[in-house]
């Protein structure tokens, strides 16, 4: 049974701070890793994908992947109140396109 | 205007009734998916289709049925056998680019039981 674990939060950070969201996964042969943002009552929106070890930066977002530790994280720099949402981590296995989702971490950015 | 559309936005089901949720896409993506999301939970896969006229059960297919007669359309029927259908239903398509596979979601349908 493939599992993806996230701290449910809520994670509260002050405006302008760095928010750090973490995710661990159980399937050692997982290949692709995604972060989706979901506002309350809305559908998930893809914000980052990462496929190899290391860091990937896109604007204020940085995804970090460590396959040896089976760990993927998302850093949000200069957090804004508009970043307040639930962040879903999703993972695919080797040779599979099926996504396994974590339950999400709720982020609250305090003005 | 391109993308994934789902209708209706809200749907009410009476006891013993079958209801059908619509999902349409004009992205020319081959693969389509249906997920269910319950409050405070991650997404769980109901059914998926890699190609027209073919579909596979996901983790929680019992009480649901699908069809894939056209590339653009992947409707989901919630049957009376699904005893706890209240949830947020999300349709997704998968884009394949240079060996990278990425899923994108429609706006969702919220199903409520009367």
Q: Helical stretch count of chain B?
A: 0
Uncertain segments of chain A = none
Quaternary state of the chains:
heterodimer
| Count of extended strands of chain B | 11
Q: Report the sheet-strand fraction of chain B.
A: over 45%
Overall number of strands of chain A: 11
The helix-and-strand class of chain B reads mainly beta
**First-to-last CA distance of chain B:** 34 Å
Mean of the pLDDT scores of chain A?
94
Largest sheet of chain A: 6 strands, mixed
Largest interface: A-B, 22 and 20 residues
Computed Rg of chain B: 14 Å
| Main sheet attributes: strand count, strand direction, barrel closure of chain B | 7 strands, mixed
What ranges of chain B have pLDDT less than 50 throughout 5 or more consecutive residues? Answer: none
User: How would you spell out the order of helices and strands of chain B?
Assistant: EEEEEEEEEEE
Report the total helices of chain A.
0
Helix content of chain B: under 10%
For the termini of chain A, the CA-CA separation is 40 Å
Q: What class do helices, strands and sheet pairing of chain A give? A: mainly beta
Q: β content of chain A, as a range?
A: over 45%
Structure overview:
- The complex is a heterodimer of chains A (111) and B (114).
- Chain A is mainly β and 111 residues long.
- Chain A has no helices and eleven strands.
- Chain A has strands at residues 4-6, 11-14, 19-25, 32-38, 45-50, 54-58, 61-66, 71-76, 85-92, 99-101, 105-110.
- In chain A, the strands form two sheets. In chain A, strands 2, 4, 5, 9, 10 and 11 form a six-stranded mixed sheet that branches.
- In chain A, a hairpin with a 4-residue loop joins strand 7 (61-66) and strand 8.
- Chain B is mainly β and 114 residues long.
- Helices cover 0% and strands 55% of the residues of chain B.
- Chain B is built from no helices and eleven strands.
- In chain B, the strands form two sheets. In chain B, strands 2, 4, 5, 6, 9, 10 and 11 form a seven-stranded mixed sheet that branches. Chain B has a four-stranded antiparallel sheet with strand order 1-3-8-7, with no helix packed on it.
- In chain B, strand 4 (31-37) and strand 5 (43-51) form a beta hairpin.
- Chain B is globular.
- Chain B starts with a strand and ends with a strand.
- Classes of the chains: A mainly beta (111), B mainly beta (114).
- The interface between A and B is medium-sized, with 22 and 20 residues.
């Amino acid at each position: 049974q493939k599992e993806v674990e996230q701290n449910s939060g809520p994670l509260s950070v002050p405006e302008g701070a760095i928010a750090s969201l973490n995710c661990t996964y159980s399937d050692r042969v997982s290949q692709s890793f995604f972060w989706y943002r979901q506002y309350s009552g809305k559908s998930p929106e893809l914000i980052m994908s990462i496929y190899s070890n290391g860091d990937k930066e896109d604007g204020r977002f940085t995804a970090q992947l460590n396959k040896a530790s089976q760990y993927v994280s998302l850093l949000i720099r200069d957090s804004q109140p508009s970043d307040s949402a639930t962040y879903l981590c999703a993972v695919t296995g080797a040779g599979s396109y099926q996504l396994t989702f974590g339950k999400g971490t709720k982020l609250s950015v305090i003005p | 205007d391109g993308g994934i559309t789902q209708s209706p936005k809200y749907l009410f089901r009476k006891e013993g009734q079958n209801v059908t949720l619509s999902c349409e896409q004009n992205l020319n993506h081959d693969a389509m998916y249906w997920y269910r999301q319950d409050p405070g939970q991650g997404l769980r896969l109901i059914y998926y289709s890699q190609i027209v006229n073919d579909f596979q059960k996901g983790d929680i297919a019992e009480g649901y049925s699908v069809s894939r007669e056209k590339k653009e359309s992947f409707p989901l029927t919630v049957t009376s056998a699904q005893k706890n259908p209240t949830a947020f239903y999300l349709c997704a398509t998968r884009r394949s680019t240079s060996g990278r596979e990425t899923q994108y979601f429609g706006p969702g349908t919220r199903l409520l039981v009367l």
